[in-house]
Amino acid sequence: MFEGGLNVDYFILLLAILLLLGVVTTKFSSRFGVPALVLFIGIGMLVGSDGLNFIYFDDPHLSQLVGVIALIIILFEGGLQTKWNSVRPILATSLSLATFGVFLTTAVVAVSVKLLLDVNWLEAFLFGSIVGSTDAAAVFSVLAGKNVKEKLSSTLEAESGSNDPMAVFLTITFIELLTKDSTSITGLVLSFFWQMGMGAVFGYFFGKFAVYAINRIRLESSGLYPVFALSFAILTYGITMLAGASGLLAVYVAAVFMGNSHLTYRNSIVRFNEGFAWMMQILMFAILGLLVFPSELFHVDIMLKGLIISFVLIVIARPIGVFLSMPTSAFSLNEKLFISWSGLRGAVPIVLATFPLIEGVENSQLLFNLVFFVVLTSALIQGSTIPWVAQKLKLTEKEKPTSPHVLELVSMGKANAEIVEFFVPEHAKIIGQTLEEISLPNESTVSAMIRGDELITPTGRTEIHAHDILYIMAHKTKLKSVSDYLSKQNIEKN
Questions:
Q1: d(Cα 173, Cα 163) in Å, to the nearest integer?
Q2: Whole-structure pTM value
Q3: HSE-up (13 A, CA, CB side) for residue 59
Q4: Where are the transmembrane segments (predicted)?
């Protein structure tokens, strides 16, 4: 009994250390330009049996479970902050990259793996499938706060949020071909279209239902709203997967719908999920770091072959996938080159690499170690150079100031009015107008303004400047009208 309690305490202490180290390493990540996921993985490898020997861990089932839960939360948080107005123009391009692009990348990598390793064609294509997709956690974290052109960052984020179904489909397909005597190719193809199509449909309807429920329910504590919203993300994944569709795609679609709709306690929901997503990233990458044994990973043979495969993936396969999947798009050569370079690999390939381990596929341990090495190489080489490449290709833009302020009504959940925050971008139509000159809907008024670090009590004669933050109090029945009006003001002057 004492030993059991001691083990629990020991585990809790290690969990606290992992989280603390994970948070601290983000400072080094920003300072040295190394993606945080590499440092999180390094923490896991450090405390593992080949490092300080604090934890012996070799359970792919638990790793897969933690990885999937973390991906749900990370995709949900990323979707909440995705602007539909930015994604809509490049949606077709992103979907092409997420499907045809992943398939092309898989095929090119598979050829190199077949030539390099002593494996059959099915095992080679299994490896290509695992590393074929970009990773949402890596892309979201690396692009956050960077001044890359919005069109490019939106394309990469939408691609990484929607290409998991293709990678999962290809991975499961080749595992079935390797482990089962007979597999229906027609059935697998139909399954893919079902997963993609119904994943999007489930996501849309669950997102719509979540918005309705969150705005209608009156909870006793404002702290319950973020938990309520997150529960819909997990519910969306669970029910969608039970229906045989893509749960990860459904979560991302639902989150995008929710993030672009009016939500009660929006700031609380977004901030909570932002912090929770960071926590799950730390735990996920640390556990994945525990799963690998550095003595096996950094073997000369693995490193040499891993570097060759990484070179093929980064320099040949990814560019082929990008250029052939978007031949008629309105992207310039430099923009396509940047998208090619920014195809980061992260948690998704490592989580997918646990599938053949669990199924007992031949050479699965070799494939896992190589996948892990390729992910580290991609994160270190590509992740740390994305800002530099964007600058060299002249694909950066002036850094957009963002609002550091948060203002919410304490009684918003029960009152009949809410406060809407509006950041005035440069060249917005209402710049230069006074508050009495703008045409806000009835039963709505600007109750406060922030200019720089100064709080302004507005009057009708207060003039609106670029980068002002307006806090508009409106009756709940007028919120859509206010939102529509503000959307029109967000268009630049002619």
A1: 16
A2: 0.79
A3: 10
A4: 6-24, 36-56, 62-80, 92-113, 125-144, 185-207, 227-255, 276-295, 307-326, 338-358, 370-390
